[in-house]
Amino acid sequence: MIISAMIVAVAGGVSGIALWLHRQGSEKTPLFLPGVYICVAQNEFCRIDDTLVIRRNRLQEDNYSVTRTTSFVRIREGKKDFPEYQQRQWNGEYQVAKCRLISSNEADTVLYYPDRNRVSKAGFYYEKIE
């Protein structure tokens, strides 16, 4: 009788701790957000190779630096032009409740999909490679 009561008490304690840890974990920024994400888009007029590098600025904060590198190749009359390159960098803050990274000084937003571990920006979806 005493042993079964102890088992019930321990099981209740363990489930309470698991619930508390789950709640604490869901309020924190996921640790796997930073990384390198790529997107390739192509049609008959152009090919775009886009890379987002997201790095955490400080370990204990939700501040990130985002570097976007784009290679754009025009296709004219079936022939590829020389690649055009562009790189932009900005800093932003991750909003956990809305799963988005918002620029602190520009009109840039990166949406994060934790269940798929990918991001999107301006209608383009990026897969995590690193």
Task: Write a structural description.
The chain is of the alpha+beta class and 130 residues long. It folds into 2 domains: 1-29; 35-128, Lipocalin (Beta Barrel), CATH 2.40.128. Helix content is 20%, strand content 50%. It is built from 1 helix and 9 strands; from the N terminus they run H-E-E-E-E-E-E-E-E-E. It has an 8-stranded antiparallel beta barrel. A hairpin with a 3-residue loop joins strand 1 and strand 2. The relative contact order is 0.16.
Give the gist of this structure.
The chain is built from one helix and nine strands, in the order αβββββββββ. With 130 residues, the chain is α+β, with helices and mostly antiparallel strands.
Name the descriptors.
130 residues; eight-stranded antiparallel beta barrel; 1 helix; Lipocalin; 20% helix
In terms of topology, how is this protein built?
Layout: H1 2-27, E1 35-42, E2 46-56, E3 63-76, E4 79-80, E5 84-95, E6 100-103, E7 109-113, E8 118-121, E9 124-128
Antiparallel strand pairs: 1-2, 1-9, 2-3, 3-4, 3-5, 5-6, 6-7, 7-8, 8-9
